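--- STAGE predict ---
source: upstream dedup step, 1 unique chain passed
mode: sequence only
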Amino acid sequence: MSQILSQYYIAGDWGTSNLRLYLCLYQSGKGSSVIDTRYGLGIGQLQRRDRADSEFETEFFKLSQDWFDQHGNMPVILSGMVGSTIGWKDAPYLDCPVDAERIAHGRFSFSARGIDFSVLGGLKTINPLGLPDVMRGEELQLLGWQLLNSGLQGDRLFALPGTHNKWSLCQQHQIKTFLSAFTGELYEILGKHSILIAQDSQHQFDEPSFIEGVNTAQKLGQANILHALFSVRSRQVLGEITAEQSSSYLSGLIIAADVVGAYQVFNSQYSKDPSNDPLGVTIIGESQLSQNYLLALSQLGIPAERVEPSIVAIAGFSAIYQYIYDS
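--- STAGE serialize ---
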């Protein structure tokens, strides 16, 4: 009878803005469960002075040392911008399509304070528009969702809202390709550094204004979002929306333009019969931004669901752990 492996390990999603560390217990045949969670500084708030004296190392052990004190030495798996050129270690990008095994084998391994670390490389692709594209961190969530829903067949389209929204096409435990959208950062720039929104007004989310922005983007036809953005200003001037409603209208306009464009690209290229069998969309995210994407997709008549990122991310980390330590 084969021995059942049961071991603690630490998984970390280390992005530009935040660090999330998970103390996990892996059991063969059962996957991983989260025992504890810690939060810390993102990559953008830390510096890599040199390989021997790193603020990343200090931040990591400040959050996790008591886990090691309690459970002994255990492996660590990190994903996200921690593996970028501005992160702790530079883990090279992997070409799509990829699966969990390829990601596990493409990791960057090193030791610090006697602990074994694996930093996962990001992904690169030539996206459906024929342009180069990259991602770091989202791949664990994509793999995790597929593992948790292994009985579903066919292509599935994912949206992972953030500063740069990621659209990804996946099938049979593989990430086939993806497309990045500049939505979050564009909204931030236009909201703070343009004439579109008054800076001294209060901006609470207003669903009717958001939906009006969605409907405006849907009607663009041969035009594009550049021809509609000034309406954020003109509608305030003409009294159609208030300054307080303008940010929600702008959000609906940008998100819907992203949804309409990306969905048309993926559905036309990858759906077997776009008229009868459109791709469903799974949104992986927990913020108001993810809810806004779900609202926009619903308004546009596109079937969609939303799932919590932490649940699918742990399933993804568990798959990587299995390939490294239990295969």
